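Ticket reopened. Same input as before:
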Amino acid sequence: MKTKFSRRMHNLHNSYLREIFVSAKAPGTISFAGGLPNPQFFPTEAIAEATAKILKEKGSSLLQYGFTEGYPPLREFIAQRYGTQYGLTVKPEEILITTGSQQGLDLLGKVFLNPGDQMALESPGYLGAILSFSFYEPDFVSVPLLEDGIDIERLGQAFQEHEIKLFYGVTNFQNPSGLTYSEAKRQQVAELLEQYDVFFVEDNPYGELRYSGQDLPPMPYYSRDKAITLGSFSKIASPGFRLGWIFAPPEVIAMATLAKQGADLQSSSFAQGVLYQYLCDNDIEAHIAIIKQAYKAQRDLMIAMVEELFPPEVGLTRPDGGMFLWLTLPEGQSAFDLFYHAVEEGVVFVPGKAFHVDGGGENTLRLSFSNSDQATLETGMQRLAKAVKRLLSDKQSVGQA
Amino acid sequence: MKTKFSRRMHNLHNSYLREIFVSAKAPGTISFAGGLPNPQFFPTEAIAEATAKILKEKGSSLLQYGFTEGYPPLREFIAQRYGTQYGLTVKPEEILITTGSQQGLDLLGKVFLNPGDQMALESPGYLGAILSFSFYEPDFVSVPLLEDGIDIERLGQAFQEHEIKLFYGVTNFQNPSGLTYSEAKRQQVAELLEQYDVFFVEDNPYGELRYSGQDLPPMPYYSRDKAITLGSFSKIASPGFRLGWIFAPPEVIAMATLAKQGADLQSSSFAQGVLYQYLCDNDIEAHIAIIKQAYKAQRDLMIAMVEELFPPEVGLTRPDGGMFLWLTLPEGQSAFDLFYHAVEEGVVFVPGKAFHVDGGGENTLRLSFSNSDQATLETGMQRLAKAVKRLLSDKQSVGQA
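Engineering reply: fixed in the latest deploy. New output:
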């Protein structure tokens, strides 16, 4: 008897990602679950204009097959922007356009990982990455996050004790915790990468959404040989394009391009052309400034409401940017139990356990503040506060019984 | 010392796919290499109108994240069309939207194949599929194609002698050979699939481009349990969208959806929305009829020019549809040698050896007739005829020396 599906399908870590997207679509319920941008800031009209213009000027090539590596002017644009932003000299050959930065994870998993290879992950870590890498059946080694980024001692220990091939992390306003690597931490990580010959896959979808503190360069600034950065247009322009990129040493790009050829030949020429035209005709930096101002207000409001409405024993992170707040319930409490109360109140979030590959995190949860206007955010947080109070009083009465 | 890249990257079969796309872009040279649609028939204006309309009506949802399974109305459209065309009752749950049908290959490889699993392939076979499956390290078992489709005796033998898990083939106007499975052949294949519990991955990007003979239903018509069909909008609307689909039993769709979540979360909401609006506002069947009329004329012209200009010892297929003609040089001749002559004359094609995973096919070549207007096609074929004559006279003089 043949086993129908491949071994990797039986070994997948639990993923709640689909449920997040589904719950985000359910009517009536307020969702702080999915990491969705606020559609209010999608440049819909500018995109319509860009589409009309480039279809008129270059319709035939836009609707035809293109290069696996991506639309050349878009690669050039991305490469040059690293220069403007961080003084990095980047060649287009170091950029591969991907179908969202999620595809970058899949391609790098394919290019680097044999079953049983060891890779280091942040704990808690991004669900989509855990899922993506799981298909290549590595052994995950979890390294805890601290307030200023990865626990560098534990990372060094992991590199020493294990044959780590890749280290995956989100350096800016991490998903799910909201935490950010300090400059010192980035330098220390780069030193470890060089010392132990490990590639760092830096996932950086939120890096441009900083609301406080100082912008820091992506990891290739600190290690050009060993750092790979994944970028995305989803959070600064629109997720609907599904366009991101890998910035990596040329030999890695060459391998990832071969993998991409097998995976989908190329990302949509149409979406790439329209996005490029939009970037040419509009001031993306000004657009990002508008989003940042709004998200900053949403972040501040959500934090203020936790402080005002939630019992003081509920802990929270105070992220400098991004989309997420991370809450910690008192020890022994379960975010899954909270979830059931919350659904009854009409609000959802993601229980933190989902972000831990080797257990733990039962009392943590992730809230997204990006995809809610002020009124929705206030109503949702009031509902969540009720759910938290019900949870804590339930437990107390159980304890007393 | 760590081996940097994964084992699968070292085991890849040679692929000429990238070179095809690159050569298709080189100026001056006429390319019969890439399987590119004729951009003259891209519905550029209608797409511009569809984009403007749907961005105005549904901009926010179009630019937001969507479902991994795809844009629901587009899945519905595809499902219903199988009913209109072939009387098949298909539910949207049996359809997964993919980033081109190429992604369908990758997802199915991921879902089904363990390293060392055996899978059957047509010989010659589609390069992109060979590449895509190679990443999952199966052992390929080649089964020859005959005029009326796969060699059914050899296929049965392969199923009996090997533990075949998947069989991959292109039933209509195959890439590269142009050959088509007869109705009887489809039924025989379905019986073998049921008997030996094998899934057939039917790649069907050209199925709607039939210029002679009778339309035949895709393989799920003959075996609903064991046949998976990959469809594509690339050849009937535009490759620039990078949109295709998998039509498969729901349990396979569920697994492929999980794999897709890891691979790219979803295909572009923007491209899906625009394509759907285009399909609603335009008569796609009338559009396909226009393409078919043009491609039929191009096919007929290319065949006529081979018959008129090429030495009679050069054999050719007479495909009933699709994009490709398959030429066979006299035994002992090399299509690679011909390629060098052809480049000098200013025309390129794909040597047939590339389509054979276990050798052979040295004297064969693939010509694409889809992406050339009449004048280009005539000039290109005159150049190729010169190259063929030079090759054959070179060899004769070598033989005489």
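Confidence is low (pLDDT under 50) at residues 16-22 of chain A. The CA atoms of residues 52 and 179 of chain A lie 41 Å apart. Please confirm and we'll close it.
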